[in-house]
Amino acid sequence: MEMTKVLAIGGAGRICRETIIDLVTSTTASELSKITVADLNEESANELFKCLSDPRVDFKRADVNKADELIELMKQYDLVISGTSLGLNPMVMACAAKAKISGISITGFGDWELDQEFKDCGRIFTPGIGMTPGTTNIMAMFACNQLDTVDTICISHGAYRPIAYSPAITETTKFEYDPNLKSRTVFEDGEFKQVPPFGRPKMIDLPEPFGPSEEYIIPHPETITLSKSVKDKGVRLIEVRGTWPQKNMALLRALYEWGLLRNDTVKVKDIHGNPVEVGTLDAIAAHWLSSPEGRQTDLYGYCLHVEVTGTKGKRKVRHILTSSHPTSDGSIPEWAGLRAYTRSVGIPTSIGTQLIMAGRSKGTGVVAPELVFDPEEFFAELTKRGILIHERIEGEWTVA
């Protein structure tokens, strides 16, 4: 079946608009005949349209909470992109299953129980095709494919962006460091082990301009999906770590130590002197969203670091893969400032969308990124857009 029409839910957001820009600039009308920005924020959509003079792009007002209306809208398209927040993505997936269309999302937390529904209609939904999850999954699989056995997979990243440049990003910040979160785990010796915030610190040598950084275990789906995808190679340990700008991490550490990340409810007075109940972290997040400190940072961009160890024949081998992209200093306008971060995340989503539409993906159902795309083809598409994947192999020695 020819696929040419795309619906982008949350397409007016800072990241998903980069997906749309890449889709428009890297496809012809025969490859992509229509892309609709479906969002509640028409003003933000108009900002996108100002930089895109392309008749293929239009706008429709859409509310994820109105499932019946969203399903009917989806039926008019061949593929849906979910550019929504962590909490809304499972709702978009459920609607896509009912509409019987393929899909892809930026965030990796979706409803894996919809697998059979997508299989029954011969469609695919791939959650989490950004930098991490997404590109990190594919980098890890690229290394695993070169090994006979896999011992450890350690994924790390540096996401250099403001702590709260949008409500969705604020939600991610609150989610990943929630002290009560049960899904912050590592896979070790055949089981998932829960880790507290700031658990298992490790210094990661990110390439310049980011440099060495202490990183901590975060709740990412790579831990879960890769434990299944490379199970036959005997993987013993999978860890996913991350960091944000150091002043952001220092702030979060202080909030954690003072108990504010629990988001306990407290009573305060509103501007009229009436008592109201608010969550402590909710109040702080509201300040971040409205303050220059919350919406700016000194260094922008995204860097990935994936280390996989195992054996090849009688040798023990360590593969180290990293990523790089153009500088954010403004010398290349489309990578200036925050766009060095948002482009890094949005471009892989566009690549994944185009590969699915072109029939160059594998499987049906809800399928993890590492099983859907050919790594070398995916890396080649990233390279065309200025995102480079580097690999080195070291520590080879004979297995006794």
List the helices and strands and how they pair.
Elements: E1 5-9, H1 16-25, E2 34-39, H2 42-50, E3 57-61, H3 67-74, E4 79-82, H4 89-99, E5 102-105, H5 115-120, E6 124-126, H6 135-144, E7 149-160, H7 167-176, E8 185-188, E9 191-194, E10 202-205, E11 212-217, H8 222-229, E12 237-243, H9 246-257, E13 265-269, E14 275-279, H10 280-290, H11 292-295, E15 301-312, E16 315-324, H12 339-357, E17 365-366, H13 369-372, H14 375-384, E18 388-398
Parallel strand pairs: 1-2, 1-4, 2-3, 4-5, 5-6, 6-17, 7-12
Antiparallel strand pairs: 7-15, 8-9, 8-12, 10-11, 11-12, 13-14, 15-16, 16-18
Helix pairs in contact: 1-12, 3-4
What does this structure look like?
With 400 residues, the protein is of the alpha/beta class. It folds into two domains: 123 residues, Rossmann fold; 220 residues, Dihydrodipicolinate Reductase, domain 2. The protein is built from 14 helices and 18 strands. The strands form three sheets. Strands 7, 8, 9, 10, 11, 12, 15, 16 and 18 form a nine-stranded mixed beta sheet that branches. Strands 3-2-1-4-5-6-17 form a seven-stranded parallel beta sheet, with helices on both faces. Strands 13-14 form a two-stranded antiparallel sheet. The chain is globular, with a radius of gyration of 21 Å.
